[in-house]
């Protein structure tokens, strides 16, 4: 009978949290897409963040965080990145299947994973990621390609995701899990005016309340809290590459809940991006260590 080495056990905890967070986010995204016909992507994002901020405010009591001027700036950037990531991702879901949108968005964390390395092998992972992108967005082939505007929104969400990782880790080291609540509150303040301007009184539709609460819990309150714990226990590059299975969660969620069937080329593209991120994970420098030691 084999046992888990003591040195490996601390790493399994944040990895498990990330897997739960990814499954939760993609299930919530499928549920959120059902709200688009009523309040649009903008209104859905606003409701999600407003409800999530209230939940996290009550649970995490972020007013106890001790913020300096420097740490406050970091939290603000983290919150704006979080809001932009949510809004742009939902905007992409209007015309792009969930699995593909997640794969395109994932280029942000993949860029974080590769940026800090200058080894020759990393160019292989970059090449694989580029191949995946070209397969997803075959220029000039309207019948097999995806909506370019939707793809641009997803790539923009990826940029915000990269900023979310980098600034979230800095902010989390200062104030721990309370940073997640502060970030969501800032994101809600940023996105709410956009959602209100777009959806107006439709945001008050009674039937949307329980759905919005479900989306807020599945897509924001639960996963962002778990991710903040993981962020403070893993290097940014390791965190980014461990998220490599998220496109699979997205594709399966889209298939199960939204009946979004992908073509063979699209599955191959997602596989290329996942392989690139797994490769980057396996070739990480042994010198990488969590910024905050595991308990």
Give a structural overview.
This protein is an all-alpha fold. The two termini are 26 Å apart. The C terminus is likely disordered.
**Structural class per helix/strand content?**
mainly alpha
Give the total of domains.
Answer: 1
Please state roughly what percent of the residues sit in beta strands, choosing from under 5%, 5-15%, 15-25%, 25-35%, 35-45% or over 45%.
under 5%
Largest sheet, in brief, is: none
Mean pLDDT: 79
Span from first to last CA? Answer: 26 Å
Helix percent reads over 70%
Number of strands: 0
Give the low-pLDDT segments: 286-295
Q: What string gives the helices and strands in order?
A: HHHHHHHHHHHH
- Helices, by number, come to 12
Outline: globular
Indicate the multimeric state.
single chain
Nearest-angstrom radius of gyration? Answer: 19 Å
Descriptors:
disordered C terminus; globular; mainly alpha; 295 residues
